[in-house]
């Protein structure tokens, strides 16, 4: 178990972040905290990808035409760069919807919104 | 010798603690500040994992733009606050999280060790192809940029489309507001 901590720590942190994110999405009744949970979940996945391409002692993949050094794999970095930008777009749309929901219901609490909907 | 250095372990532990704070803090403004700290910690972790491009994007987009978006949102809405500093624990959600985390944990042991030079990603033909041919074929020294803008250029075009679609969606959703 201690051995696993030393060699697979990044993967344990990825599981922890995914768990914390899922908890935020499901447990919080505040809509803004739910979106924070979504972002934490997403970063957990990013950590999994970037760690998978990492090589101990590897340099960032910036080559100078001569290849004697070890470089880390560039492909996970590219995928995650795209995912970060898509993630922020998603967050922007979600937060815009939150502002609209607040204007319509006057609250950001999930339970309160459900009550207002039932009363209509 | 372990591949997980002390610096990386400290930064990742800091990220987990700030993530927990961001979820459990009751006051949304406090949660947003904790989330910004979390993004910053993760950006440093990318740097330690030899991913400077991802670190720059995370610092600018994750810690920067996302935080501003959250702050604008709470400026336009409410900030629930009370006597309690933290939210009480929701045990039904804990059960769901335990199931998911337990399932994922069973797979962790089968993954290659962090930083292993023989991991499938490190020894993949695609990785070797990009590292060997990116500079001769595209003339770009940074392989990440070469892949992003040349080899996977259509993918990046798709990404730009997503950003435009998101911008249009935000404008449509907030259409009737005075500030659009």
UniProtKB/TrEMBL annotation, chain A:
Its main location: membrane. The chain crosses the membrane at residues 6-24, 36-55, 75-99. InterPro entries: CPA3_antiporter_subunitC, NUOK/Mnh_C1-like. It is a multi-pass membrane protein. The keyword Membrane applies. GO terms for cellular component: membrane. It is found in: Membrane. It holds the Pfam family Oxidored_q2. It comes from the Archaea. Keywords: Membrane, Transmembrane, Transmembrane helix. Gene3D superfamilies: 1.10.287.3510. This is Cation:proton antiporter subunit C. It comes from Halobellus rubicundus.
UniProtKB/TrEMBL annotation, chain B:
It comes from the Archaea. It is a multi-pass membrane protein. The chain crosses the membrane at residues 6-25, 32-49, 55-74, 94-111, 157-174. Residues 14-77 form the MrpA C-terminal/MbhD domain. GO terms for cellular component: plasma membrane. Its main location: membrane. Keywords: Cell membrane, Membrane, Transmembrane, Transmembrane helix, Transport. This is DUF4040 domain-containing protein.
């Amino acid at each position: 178990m201690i051995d696993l901590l030393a060699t697979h720590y990044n993967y344990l942190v990825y599981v922890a972040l995914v768990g914390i994110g899922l908890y935020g999405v499901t447990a919080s009744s505040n809509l803004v905290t739910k979106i924070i949970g979504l972002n934490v979940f997403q970063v957990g996945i990013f950590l999994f990808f970037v760690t998978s391409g990492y090589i101990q002692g590897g340099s960032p993949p910036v080559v100078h035409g001569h290849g004697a050094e070890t470089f880390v794999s560039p492909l996970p970095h590219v995928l995650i760069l795209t995912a970060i930008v898509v993630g922020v777009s998603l967050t922007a749309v979600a937060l815009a919807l939150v502002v609209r929901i607040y204007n319509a219901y006057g609250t950001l609490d999930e339970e309160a919104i459900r009550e207002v909907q039932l009363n209509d | 010798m372990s591949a997980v250095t002390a610096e990386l372990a400290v930064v990742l532990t800091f990220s987990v603690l700030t993530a927990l704070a961001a979820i459990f803090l009751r006051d949304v403004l406090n949660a947003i500040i904790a989330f910004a700290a979390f993004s910053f910690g993760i950006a440093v972790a990318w740097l330690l994992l030899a991913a400077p491009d991802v670190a720059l994007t995370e610092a600018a987009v994750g810690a920067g733009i996302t935080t501003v978006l959250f702050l604008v949102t709470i400026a336009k809405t409410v900030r629930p606050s009370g006597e309690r500093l933290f939210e009480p624990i929701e045990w039904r959600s804990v059960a769901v999280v335990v199931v998911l985390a337990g399932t994922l944990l069973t797979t962790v042991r089968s993954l290659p060790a962090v930083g292993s030079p023989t991991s499938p990603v490190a020894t993949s033909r695609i990785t070797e192809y990009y590292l060997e041919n990116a500079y001769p074929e595209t003339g770009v020294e940074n392989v990440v940029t070469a892949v992003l803008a040349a080899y996977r250029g259509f993918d990046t075009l798709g990404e730009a489309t997503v950003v435009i679609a998101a911008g249009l969606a935000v404008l449509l959703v907030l259409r009737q507001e005075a500030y659009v």
